[in-house]
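Box 3.1. Reading complex inputs
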Amino acid sequence: MADPMKIRASAKEGITEVKVLMSHEMETGQRKDSSGNLVPAHFITEVSAEHNGKQVLAAQFGTAISKNPYLAFKFKGGAKGDKLAVSWVDSKGDKRTDEVLIG
Amino acid sequence: MRTGLHAVLAAVVLGIGGSALAQGSTMDEITKYREMLADGNPAELLEMKGEELWKKPRGPKNVSLEQCDMGLGPGKLDGAYAQLPRYFADTKKVMDAESRLVHCMVTQQGFSEAEATRNWFSKPGRNSDIESLITYIGGKSNGAKIDVPARHPEEARMAKVGEYIFYRRSGPQDFSCAICHGQEGKRIRLQDLGNLTTRAGAGTAMGNWPSYRVSQGTVWTMQRRLIDCMRQARWPEPNYLADSIIALEVFLQKTASGTVMQTPGIKR
């Protein structure tokens, strides 16, 4: 199973700032290994963030995004103690969801 | 003919002025790039994983590393990395963070040394427990002052050996560490080369590791950094945890003593 994400979320003056680090290889499918064989593509395709169950961000990811992606965004609303969940799905169908309380 | 020569001279002078200017703004841009990267340093992922590995019962004996003595007493990690390498009475050896960690994995968790060090660095698709554990242990010294006075006779001896290696020219290119890292204001391509003979220079070099290498997509430990320095100098590569590497660490940490650690760092 994939390693956990690191999520930080803080609310200030009605705006919540979210910073997410995802642990993922993000293989493009173009890289070759030491014996010259192509390393199969394996990357995150979709990312979604939900605030108290309501989606606040949906993103499509591709191979131009680096290994261990970092995503920062802000949304209107959110208060201390609210739940914020981030999920991703990758090209092999692996999934990961992590949740934090907004601080 | 004369005018021609003047024109060439003028062009040369202008050329020098132009490149100095470009160099200044390039460094500013690189600094900006580093600041942007530092906001979401993926080394934090390894720190999280390292903490879990530290606390989880593992190995044939199924115990955690929480009783491991990194120099300040069993389980005491705050500031421990900043005071390594040091002499350990139980092994009668000067050990750095990585050799001490492996010692704990062997003596407390029951791994064989070969098992413990098999994946001492990661490759895509091959994780390294040591990388994560060292990122976690190093992070516990973030903000701590480097303090390696090398007063114990064994530590003093290692510092001397390290100093010798630092200045010793050898290998097919007749290279020493000091050739790149013994002067102020040197660059290789776009990278500033630190002057490791000064406290400030050694402090910047030592205080930032373990560090996430964006180009490698993982954290490099100090052992990996120094072993790769040897490779780049076209020297034979030392084995992982070799005394020569630990000696260099003692020498550099002694020079860096008094500077503040900022780790995990992030590098290109």
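In summary: The first helix of chain B runs from residue 2 to 38.
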